[in-house]
Design brief:
Strand order of the largest sheet: 2-1-6-5
CATH topology of one domain: Ubiquitin-like (UB roll)
Number of helices: 3
Strand content: 25-35%
Radius of gyration: 17 Å
CATH architecture of one domain: Roll
Distance between the termini: 32 Å
CATH class of one domain: Alpha Beta
Number of strands: 8
Length: about 150
């Protein structure tokens, strides 16, 4: 475990105490919900390991752990859309975090160029058959990912 984060205490210490004791899952990560600090719009969901969480706290820039690439990354480092953390909260049992951020650059948080990773809606079909159709609700991309990111090998 990281030197920044103490061993977890009992339930009362975790839920009512004033010591940050994050609980990482068996893969060593916890989910991080990211929203715009001003509008409240949900921008993305990512995962943090202890190092990403420490770097975020120390630098004020959102860092995450890529489960697919197995590496640490600073959000917006390549695209110029850095996420500056305004506030970092933890949930009641400290197994998830919420980052309220201000996005630099063009303001996009999704690797597809969209402002939010949640740019498509799943229609509710209450009382009818469920459909797999998605509605695009997030506007046009703010940048062209093909011009920003290098192809992966």
């Amino acid at each position: 475990m990281s030197s920044l984060f103490p061993e977890r205490g009992d339930k009362n210490q975790v839920e009512a105490g004033s010591v940050f004791m994050p609980r990482f899952d068996s893969a060593g990560v916890l989910p991080a919900v990211v929203s715009d600090a001003d509008s409240g719009e949900v921008l993305m969901l990512a995962f943090m390991n202890a190092e990403a969480l420490e770097r975020t706290i120390h630098s004020g820039v959102a860092h995450f752990w890529s489960r697919s690439r197995q590496c640490l990354w600073a959000k917006g480092e390549t695209s110029g859309n850095l996420q500056r953390v305004v506030e970092l909260r933890t949930d009641c049992d400290q197994d998830a975090v919420w980052l309220r951020v201000r996005v630099e650059g063009k303001g996009a948080s999704c690797h597809t160029g969209h402002r939010s990773c949640f740019y498509r809606a799943v229609p509710l079909t209450i009382g009818d058959a469920v459909t797999s159709k998605l509605d695009h609700v997030g506007g046009e991309p703010m940048f062209d990912p093909k011009k920003v990111y290098k192809p992966t090998q």
